[in-house]
Amino acid sequence: MDFLVSYTANVAAEITKYAFAPIGRQCRYVFSYSSIIETLKGKVNNLKTERGKMESKVIEAKKNGEKIFAEVSKWLNDVKEFLEESNTFLDKDIKEVDTKCIKGLFPNLCSRYQLSRKAEKKMVAVEELMKRNNFTKISEYVQPPPIEFTADENSVAFNSRKEIFDEIYASLKHDHIRMTGISGMAGVGKTTLVEQIGKEAGSSRLFDVILLAAISQNPDFSYIQQRFAERMGLTKFDEKTKEERASRLHGILERRLNDGEKILVILDDVWEELKMSDLGIPFSHDDSKSQRSCKIIITSRDENLCNKMGSQKIYKVERLHQNEAWSLFERIVGHDILTIDRRKIASEIIKACGGLPLAINIIASTLRNNDNLDCWKDAIGKIRRANFDRRLSTVLELSYKFLEKESDAQELFLLCSLFREDADIPIWDLLIYGLGWGLFQDTTTLESAFVRINVRVKYLKSTSLLLDGTTKESVKMHDVVREFALAVPSKDRHMFRVEAGSSFDNVARLNLCTSMSLQIREADDFPSKLELPELKLLKLETAFDGPPLVLPYDMIVTMQKLKVLSMYGIQIMSLPQAFKYFQELRTLFFDSCEIEDISIIGELKNLFFLHFHGCNMKALPEEICKLTKLKILDLSGCEELTLVPSSVMRSLSRLEGLLIGQFERWEVSIEDNRNNRASLEDLKSLSNLVLLEVHIPDIELWPEDLLFENLMRFKISVGQKFEYWEHFSDSSKILKLKDETHRPLTKGVDVLLQTAEVIYMENMNGFQNGLYERSDITCFLESKYLDIENFSKMKYVADATIARCEVFPHLEELRITRLPQLMSILKSPAESAPLQKLRKLKVWGCPKLRSIFSQSMVTCLLQLVEMEVCECEALEEIVDCEKKPEVQHIGFHQLRYLKLSKLPNLKSFLSSTNALAGDNHHAPCVRVGLFQNKG
Which one-letter DSSP state was computed for residue 712? Predict the structure, then answer.
């Protein structure tokens, strides 16, 4: 009986518990309202703290040139959205309920109940966000884009060079050799050799990072450190002193070394002993520290200097042997040109050049397009009569004289000499300087001027007076050629470059000077009195950390013929009122300047080209409205710019080029624009635009009728700005799209997709059946590079069965990242032949993908050079041949690099039992079963 009573009591207790517990919870929502809200506030504050910590880490990682993981960015975005909702809830909803009662004395119980429940749900959401914040790493190093070394592979094909090349390259693989020196006289080919070594080390991936800098006779450490920082992708490198910059670089490079990366630093044209620590390069001769030391290669004309700096191996580059010199000359001019008469003269020319590759290159390049035998005879006569030390200069004089037949070629050549030694000279800068200077006067549009300068640059490169730059849109000038250009006498172009610390003693020459490049490192370097009555181009460069530079009034008033003024790295508190005298000024170029008051700029009524590249200005002066003749406005890199007046945009009706890629404060509503802020609607008034760089923060801001149908060049980002590694200087039409909504693309985007050469697309969740699923447009016709990332619903990159046009006819590189639903890269009929020009393929993070290629696809991939496949958990084979088991061979004849990583289910390369064939002379033969053990 007692047992029955006890049992009944327990049952009753349980019934009471389950019956009244929900009632208790409901009551708690009302009576514990204040406690619940306070608890939520505490959790929200904790989340804010965690977000602040994460944002600090992200800022530091970005400053160090690292790429933030997508999941970290998503967490921050989710937290941001949650906190915005929570702030509205706590600051608005709660306060309204607390005040809406009878004289504030009687609470609204119903509202309290509802808000308490919402608060508890928000606390659960906070806990979920806090749990997700368990990242062991938030970023990864981004490998710098490979340096486009300009050295020709044939340049080291000679025995005298190949032996040295092979020895130096082999030494790079030995830990105990950390510094190598290369010596030799000017023009003998030291730079060419070291660039070829760098090129080979980069293409073979012997090093993770390669840094290159020309030290020169007057080294500018600040400039060199800036170049290194750009290579490392540092978004902020604003330390004030060279010691601070060196410390920052040293810390970043040392961290990468400690993480197992290998770094090669090439220092070209060293004249004096220098310490690696002054540049910020981790280096030690101590064998115990070899893993924390960069590899160093230095070149110098002085062999003793290489030894003083501690080079463990020193190689001397001698002049070419006679037979090598002949081979070089013949290769340049062409075998067919060398008739019997010319062969005799050519042999004498080669002998007179003394085996110097630079002299042979230039004279051969000059003579190859000249079929007049007397010109060849005249050349050998002039070279012979010169002393040996002067023969290289004589060759340069001959080549320079031959430029007379091409209009503007000599002037363009001289213009290049005003840039610092070994500078990568942007062709864009040459164009703007040249147009302001008076070159290309018979061109009527910006596009025709682009065509003209590219023709002239190509011609100058064909004469070897200019060299290829590190990109297709830049050039370089050999230091010996540059010295000649600065000294060459010219009828009406007198060039003058003053290095830091040099004097202005030659008053007579200054009075005739028409173009000057002035480098300032200390405030005292700037002359207090300087008269330049004939000056038409002035290029000022400075990197000193001192008071703002003030251009002397007396100097300005003597320069009334000035047409081009360029200032780099200069602090300008206020442009002097004397600037109003520059009524002939056509080009005004501010680069990386600190600018405050420049309102006087509105008086320069004849200005055509105005550039504020990388300046710290916060607002574009409204006085620019007066510059109605302006053709180019460049605001690229102005990260602090927050105000562009609408009136300025609407007044510049002649504008052909607008570069405003960092600006994002576009006005949303134009109906009541009291702040005079520019909107994207204002761009409609710029009907002459052919060049545009712009960032649009949200695709909703893009007006439906804003169509850029006449653009010849563009770099446009929507939703997210370009990262530093998303840099394609060789392409003139670049588009980036990021949009997490399902909104349809505007007509303006459709127009750009038809002509864009480089396309980045991220979070475009409206696509499911591929990029061609919209049948009303034809896109990607000119695309050479395509990068798609984080498409949550996409099953195919392209479905050729529904496309209205040929699928990716010109695509050379395809990158696919984090497509969780991707089933196949391409869905296409068997008879189609897609991706015939594809050279590089990277697939990462596609968990449902079972194979990379179908058989019909792979037979078209005759140009594939590189392939990476990583983190695709379901992948079983690279090539799916199950549908056609009779296939005998599939060839990847050009494949040079293959990386397969984190593919746990990979069984074989092919799903059939046949071999994968390769060209015996090119690609290795890969056979079935190679991956059976999932190694």
Answer: S
Angstrom distance (rounded) from CA 495 to CA 538: 10
DSSP code of residue 582: -
Single out the residue of 501, 538, 539 nearest to residue 522, CA to CA: 501
H-helix segments, 259-390 = 276-279, 303-308, 322-333, 340-352, 357-367, 373-385
Cα dihedral 657/659/663/668 (nearest 10): 20
Q: Which two tokens stand for residue 29?
A: 């929502």
Q: Which tokens hold the place of 669?
A: 């509503």
pLDDT digits (tens, 9 = 90+) for 248-298: 899 889 988 988 889 999 999 999 998 999 999 999 877 777 678 899 999
Dist CA 399 CA 422 (whole Å): 20
Task: Give the 3-state secondary structure of residue 829.
Answer: coil
- Exposed, middle or buried by CB within 10 Å (0-12, 13-18, 19+), for 780? buried
How many Å is the Cα radius of gyration of the chain? 33
Q: How far apart are CA 330 and CA 767, in angstroms?
A: 56
Distances in Å between the Cα of 245 and the Cα atoms of 277, 568, 637 are 11, 19, 20
* Number of Cβ within a 10 Å radius of residue 383: 23
> How many C-beta neighbours within 10 Å does residue 706 have?
17
Give which of 635, 400, 434 is closest to 537, Cα–Cα: 434
Which SS3 state, helix, strand or coil, does residue 573 take?
Answer: strand
Instruction: Describe the crossing of helices 70-88 and 109-132 by its angle, rounded to 10 degrees.
Output: 160
Report the SS3 class of residue 906: coil
pLDDT tens figures, 848-862: 999 888 877 777 788
Give the whole-angstrom CA distance, residue 876 versus residue 862: 23
For 848-888, strand residue ranges (E) read: 851-854, 866-870, 877-880
Alpha carbons 566 and 615: distance in angstroms, whole number: 13
Q: Please indicate whether residue 9 or residue 136 has the higher confidence score (pLDDT).
A: 136
Structure tokens at 676: 């005079």
Can you name the residues that pair with 762 across neighbouring β-strands?
Answer: 738, 789
